[in-house]
Amino acid sequence: MSVFIQSTLQGFKGAIKAFQRFPASIASALGFAIVTMIRIQLDWPEQEPYNFLFNCLHWSFALGAVFSLAVITGAYTRYNHKKSFLTANLLGAAAVVVTFLVLYFFGGTYPSLEKSSFATISSLAEARVSVAILLSLIAFIYLAGYPKEQSDFARSFFMTLKAYFIALIYGLVIMAGTAGVAGAIEALLYEGMSEKVYMYLGTLSGFVAFTIFVGYFPDFRRGYMDSHREVAQKQPRFIQVLFEYILVPIVLALTIVLLLWAGRTILSGMEASFLRLYGIATAYTIGGILLHIIITHSESGLARFYRRVYPLAALVILAFEAWAFVIQLEKSGLKTTEYFFIVIWIIALISAILLLIRKHDAHPTIALLTCVMAVLAVFPLVGYQALPVSAQVNRLENLLIDQGVLDNNQLIPAVTPPELAVRESITDAVTYLAYAENAKLPAWFDKRLAESSTFKTKLGFEQTWPEFEGPNGNTHSLVTILQLTPQGIDIGDYRWALNLQDYEYQKEQSSATLNGAQGTYHINWTRDPKTNMPTLRIELNDRVILEQTMDDYIKRISASYPPNDGRPAQVGLQDMSLQFDTPEVTVLLVFNRIEMNLDPQADRIFYGFDLSSLYMKEK
């Protein structure tokens, strides 16, 4: 028990030391927590105008916390004097300020299709800050592995991983304990306590967990031998068992599966879904390299066998993954998924070669390679947004020119529809480009081509989607998404307009009450908890005058719009509205969006109704 108490107290002592050793990092984390609590305090309608500001602050403080950790560690391990320590902290503060200014003035974008009119941070700006955080974290791990007499990259990486999970456990325990106390207060003393109290506790628990994470690291000062470094870098016995005797066999089993897939591909050709292959390849590459780093110093037979086999097996598997990539490229061109696939493939290929040649000495070089590829992925012209857009523009232009639909940068509607495969390829490229954020598109391309009506008018044929590839390679069309085309609505002599939309975080029933010439009306819009199918119920003076589900309506529109692979279809008001007549009232429902999703394996169908308004008039 005394050992447990001593270990617990050591964690909190380390958190206190973190304020002294890494003040800029802790200050950034504190700023992050303060911004979070301000957002908790402000409800959404009040917060929306400041949402962009808060997001900029959050990203800036997040980068500042990790960047400060890296530069201060570099100052400790390379110089270790007050001037370098002060400079490192000032650099951390400057990183926060510069990041905020760049995001606020250059990282915003105004959404064109969403309802909000306020600026948001572009996904590319967020990706670039995320890459900066990743680079800072890798730099910290590298710098914390110095001097070589006491550490190396593998030991430093495990120490960081260990600190993270220790801090996570502390944070979860603190959160659970404080939330339990707050729950008791709410149940026994103050039933009207706001749920925001739990959000505040979660935020503070997260901040304390970060201080414990930073405080767990040893004293990195140059020329100082901290006995805690050996403890922090040591792998406990249960960790050794977990990685060497559980994770290593699992990864080796996955290696065998992938090698068998390679052999099957030689005999019967490429049959695997590219998206599934992308997920498996990503997990195998990242997981395999990280596992190699963690078990670098293990002397067990399984660990030594894995370190020898993994690079060789990876090279064989990567060759067949390249084959799958080429086939996918011929099929749909370079898009975001294919882009990240090739980035990961390049990292995996060079890493496997380096591991074969340099063994564990390759780890810092692999980390540097990861940093370079991450930077290139968010770079102009060759980044994940720019390069796929350029590739898809070239693909679409070639398709349209071949069909005579594009001439001298002018769209000419096709006289006769192209072949099915061509229509599918054109629809695929158009959809990708129409929804690409901040893309540099040619003058002839209209983003409204994503709408089915505009597509048919300008290209001369209907949008055509390929069949959806199901879980087992079977083709099933399971999803229908309909969106109301932007237009004016003539509401005639309807007297009332009601908003009854029930969002997921609300109850399963929304209701409204109004007084008319015939009495008091109670309108209820309820959802089935299993299928989400809504039912409209109207009572007049406590007498039910209308109770109707949307079943018949769904059957009607399903016949007109069969399922596809989930791409939205733009639909007119006639199909996105529904009218009911009773002797007492006339009711008109107008929907913004309708979704129907069938899961054949679970034998379940799910509906999503975004009800824009309910219009009603008395007779």
TrEMBL record:
The keyword Transmembrane applies. It comes from the Bacteria. The keyword Iron-sulfur does not apply. This is DUF4153 domain-containing protein. The chain crosses the membrane at residues 21-40, 52-76, 88-107, 127-144, 164-185, 197-217, 238-263, 275-297, 309-327, 339-357, 366-387. Keywords: Membrane, Transmembrane, Transmembrane helix. It comes from Desulfitobacterium dichloroeliminans (strain LMG P-21439 / DCA1).
